[in-house]
Structure prediction request, 258 residues.
Amino acid sequence: MVAIKGEGLTFLYDQEEILKGVNIEIIKGEITSIIGANGCGKSTLLKNLTRIYKPKNGKVFIDFKNIKEYGYKDLARKLAILPQGPQSPEGITVEELCYFGRNPYRGFLEDKSKRDREMVEYSLKETRLYEIKNRRLNTLSGGQRQMAWIAMSLAQETDILLLDEPTTYLDLAHQIEILELLNKINNQKDKTIVMVIHDLNQAAKYSHNLITLVKGEVYSVGKTRDIFTEEMIRDVFSVNSRIIQEPIYNDLICIPIT
Prediction:
């Protein structure tokens, strides 16, 4: 079943065509990664799928309903997006940040409900931040801050989660920690996850599906094992490589060659 569908998406920035008639489908309950060279339109596509950007032409459907038909709170109950480099209010704590994720379910000045408290507690425990929930965000490490933002997105209690480069600027240990968490919540909650990611081997390991872009156009869409090929790496990234299968976990691994 399709969770998100983009039809003929065209987007201009300063009269430059960034997306060129993009057609994609995001499969419900699976992890899909958007990959491509720098400047190919990955983040722009993600923002067009969430109404942050409005396409010049084309349509976006969420659960078969045009995204234009959703009210703000209705859409926020359907999908959560974690952008690059999110900014938080000065001095906010981890727990306070998580409660922002409950805004789509609360009226103006309405007290926290039992469900609000349950979801915030769940999110803090899933991200292993419960013990530091009263720490201020600006005192945390980069990996902890990113986990806090993911916790807020989990507290939003949506079926769909979109992340724009969630592992950028993090060390390898924190990258793996975040990707393993996303894999866990996908497996346990059937959450549809879409992420822009740069590391090709991580994309191959943690994604059921790949969308590859070249200069604002779709090069390929499909199951990772069908899409992740030496030909794709050459055409999309201008890199010669060998794709091997790791013998223990059967992961596909890209090895660049000169």
User: Anything to note?
Assistant: The two ends are 41 Å apart (CA to CA). Residues 172-189 form the longest helix (18 residues). Residues 2-84+160-256 form a domain with the Rossmann fold fold (CATH 3.40.50.300).
